[in-house]
Amino acid sequence: MPDSRSFCMCPKFEKTFSILGKKWNGLIIDVLLTEGQQRFKELAAKVDKCSDRVLVERLKELEVEGLVQKVAVPDSCRVEYALTEQGADLADIMTAIHDWSEKWYAECHN
């Protein structure tokens, strides 16, 4: 039952949901959590319904927010994307979201 005190949305909570609720961000974070560091093409293949342009935008936004970082691959000009400590700290939240969706949604609709 909700608390009877007046409800005031916390700015930190709003900011968190503005990041996690933005289309593709949750999936990008989930892929990096489960698959680890990824090259852009690998990530694009796993977030396959997202255009490359939008994926670039989302990765830049997640970098600015401190959740994702570009990692230079030694002895190569390649760059890969990985979660920062802050991004990796979302693991329990993402697990809870997976558990909730398994409980409440009978099947995936593509």
List the helices and strands and how they pair.
Elements: H1 11-20, H2 25-35, E1 38-39, H3 40-46, H4 52-64, E2 68-72, E3 79-83, H5 85-88, H6 91-104
Antiparallel strand pairs: 1-3, 2-3
Q: How would you describe the overall organization of this protein?
A:
54% of the residues lie in helices and 11% in strands. With 110 residues, the chain is mostly helical. The protein has one domain: Arc Repressor Mutant, subunit A, CATH 1.10.10.10. Strand 2 and strand 3 form a beta hairpin. It is globular. The model has no long low-confidence stretch (mean pLDDT 91). Keywords: DNA-binding, Transcription, Transcription regulation. One of its GO terms (molecular function) is DNA binding. This is HTH hxlR-type domain-containing protein.
* Separation of the first and last Cα atoms: 34 Å
Top CATH class: Mainly Alpha
Which class of secondary structure composition applies to the elements? mainly alpha
The CATH topology name reads: Arc Repressor Mutant, subunit A
Domain HTH hxlR-type: 10-109
Protein name: HTH hxlR-type domain-containing protein
Keywords: DNA-binding, Transcription, Transcription regulation
InterPro entries: HTH_HxlR, WH-like_DNA-bd_sf, WH_DNA-bd_sf
